[in-house]
Amino acid sequence: MRMMSRRFGAVTRVETTRGTRARAVRVETMRGSFGAAETSRATSGGRARGENYGGRRDAATRAARRPNASEYAAATTSKGGGGSAFERAGGLLYVRNFFEPETYERVAKECAKLRESVTAENRACARHRLGVMVPMDNFVHEACVASSVAERLGTLLLGEENDGDLVAGDVPVEFRIYPVGGSMDWHKDVALYSKPQFEIVFTVTNTSDSTTEWEDERTGMRYGGWTEPNSVIVVRADGAPHRVTAVTRGERSIVKFVLTQTLEKTDDFFDNLLTYTH
After folding, report:
1. Which pLDDT score, from 0 to 100, does residue 46 have?
2. DSSP per-residue codes, 154-202
3. What confidence tens digit (pLDDT) does each residue in 126-138 have?
């Protein structure tokens, strides 16, 4: 099985512009190496913010995350026009510049306070990971379950014409830390609702060398990349297998939350509640 790693070739580029009441979204599809979507917000100077992957990383490293010519050629020849951005991405969507800068800064500050409460997790596929449930009155929780977040992601995940809106799932929002040694084995997320939910992983900070890897089950190809702060990865429960490689230096912190099309629960929902022991 062929593996491509540490490249963030965009599968879907999402350009957004803000109006007084609504955000217009234009989606351009390219096959690339991470199954990524990019959200760019125009600046007064005409250049989109977030075009680079962090000032600490050098140009050679950033360039290595872009698709090479052969990958781009394969992308353009297999380009499809139907379905949602999520479907065209092959089961994993990566969105950059997720929150507005002010919101992101406040989320990051609140997560820094939550660090005092994290404990070792008791999850079957997680290794040396720390976590805590985010209180419902915390700004981090409020930011993640806001209806604007569900509305924004709805078009990307379900398409322009869909069979229902997304709402926040009634499972805890979690703050997690991957310290040195932290990782997550290959797995599929368990379906907690009668329509499998979307699992949203928001990267708060990332100074690590860890990557997120996933498999496109349609092609058998595996992809991977480093997630930058203020980005999200979206996978669907019982969908694409994925893992987080072990941290050997630095640290990665994330917030995980759920969006769903229904609150009708499966038996696994209640079994899953037993994993929230902190």
Report:
1. 32
2. HHHHH-SS-SS--EE-SS--EEEEE-TT-EEEEE-PPP-BSSPPEEEEE
3. 999 999 999 999 9
